[in-house]
C-alpha cells in the first residue's frame, strides 16, 4: 500500500495550510469504514474523508458525494454531538507514523471552552477513528479493541489513549548516511532492498523504494555504496521538501501511486490526486464486485442447465436400448405356443429370427408369466420411444439455453460500466429469474411508460475509412442495432459460430471496398470470444437478410446470403 507515512505527512501539511481555523459543520458516516467531515474554512466548504478500510485506509479532501444513511450509526451520532461547531486548531503527526491527530477547540453544552482530539490511525486492519477529551481519555471509537481480541492496547470508552508501539526506526531520527548504511547492509543476504527498508523504517512503503530504485536505474542485487547514498538522499528530499506530488506507479502486483519530486506545487496537489485515484479505484472495485456477483448467479444457472443436459444424455443412452426390449417382447409373443404359461422362470433362451435364429437369452421377471413379461417389455419399449422424442426436443432447447447463457457470460467479461451490467442483469433476470416477478407485474393494471429506446441505445461507435461502424454491447442492444436501427443496405457482421457482438457498417447506399469490409470484420472479431486468436472467420451480409426467429432469445438471429472472410482481430481507434 503506497499510502505510507511520507504520504500521510505531506497530506497533513496540505490540510494544515487550508483547514486550520475551519469549523466542522456536518459529520456523515456512509458506511462502517468511512467518516466524512464537512468543514467551512477560508470562505469555502471542504469535505475531509477518513477511510479505515484495511485495503484502502487513508485521509484526504474529497469532492465525491457519498449517500447518507437514513439512520446514522451510533459513532456518527456521537461525533455530531461532540465535534459539530468546533474549530480545527491544528493537525499533528508523529514522525512518519500513519497517525493523524486533529486538535479541536470550542464550547461544550455548558458553554465551557474545551479542547478535543480526533485521532486517525491508518494501520491496515487495525485502522481506527478515536475521539478523545481534553484529558486524553477515549470518548469513543469507530472500532472497539482490547487485548482479548488480539490488540496490544485497549481502545475502549473511558480508557486513556496510548500510542501504538513499534520496533521500527524513525527515519527522521537517522542523523546521516553512514548510520543509514550501517543499519541496512547487515540484512542484504536476508531479503530484497525494498523489504529491508520498509521492515526497518516506519512509514516507508516497499512500492516507494521500488520506484526510487527504478527512477535512479539502480539494480538492487548489485548496489554500490554510492547507490545507497543516492537512495538515502532521495528519501531525505521526499520527506523534507514541500515540492512533491503523487504519480501513478505500476509494479508486478498492482497499480498504485508514489511520491515524486516536482518543480511546482499547487496547494492541494496531493489531496486532489488521491481523491481522483481512489475514486477510480473504488469505481473499478465496485464494477468488479458487481460483475462477479452477477456472474455467480449466471454460472449457477449455467451449472443447472449443464447438469440437466448430462441427465438428458444419460436418458438418451437408455433410449438406445429400446429396440432390444421390443425384440424381447416379439420373441416371447412368437414363441408363446411352446412356452409353459404356468412356469415362471428367470430367463428364456429363444431363437432370434432377426439374427438368423441365433439363440438369445432373455432376462425374465419370475413373479410374472411369460405373456405378462412380453407386455412389460412392450410397455418399456413404448415408454422409452416416447421419452426419446421428448428428451431430444428438451435437449435441443437446453443446448440453446446454454448457448444463450454463454453469450451473456461473454458480455459480462467485456463490460465497462455499472450501467452495462444493469442491462445484462435485467436481461438475465427476465429470461431465468423473473418469471414470478413478471407474472406479478402483469396483475398491475397500470402500465409503465415506454422507455425511449434511442435514450438507452449507446453502442460503441467507430469511424473506419470514413464510414460509421457500430458495435453492440449486449444482446438487447445487438437486437435493436441489427433489426431496427440498421437500414436494409447496411452491412451486418458476426463471427462464425462464436459468441460476439453484432457489428453494423453504415453504407449510406454506397458500394463498400473489400479492404473496408475486412477492417470491419477484424473489429467484429476483436469484440468476440475469439479476440485472442490469430485467424477468425467472420460472416457478413446485408442487414435485410438478418431475421429473428419466433420466440428466440435476445441476440439470437438467423441470416442468409452471407459471405465469410478470415481476419485477424484488431481494435480500430475510436
Explain what you see.
Helix 7 (269-319) runs antiparallel to helix 9 (370-413), helix 7 (269-319) packs parallel to helix 10 (418-433) and helix 9 (370-413) packs antiparallel against helix 10. The protein starts with a helix and ends in a 7-residue tail after the last strand. The longest helix is centred in the middle third of the chain and has 51 residues, at 269-319. The model is unreliable at 435-455 (pLDDT under 50). A 6-stranded antiparallel β-sheet has the order 14-15-17-16-18-21. A 5-stranded antiparallel β-sheet has the order 5-6-7-8-9, covered by helices on one side. The protein has a 4-stranded antiparallel β-sheet with strand order 1-2-3-4. Strand 16 (491-495) and strand 17 form a beta hairpin. It folds into 4 domains: 5-165, ibrinogen binding protein from staphylococcus aureus fold; 171-267; 316-448, no CATH class; 453-567, no CATH class. The chain contains 14 helices and 21 strands. With 574 residues, it is α+β, with helices and mostly antiparallel strands.
Summarize the structure.
The protein is α+β, with helices and mostly antiparallel strands and 574 residues long. The chain contains 14 helices and 21 strands. The chain folds into four domains: 5-165, ibrinogen binding protein from staphylococcus aureus fold (Roll); 171-267; 316-448, no CATH class; 453-567, no CATH class.
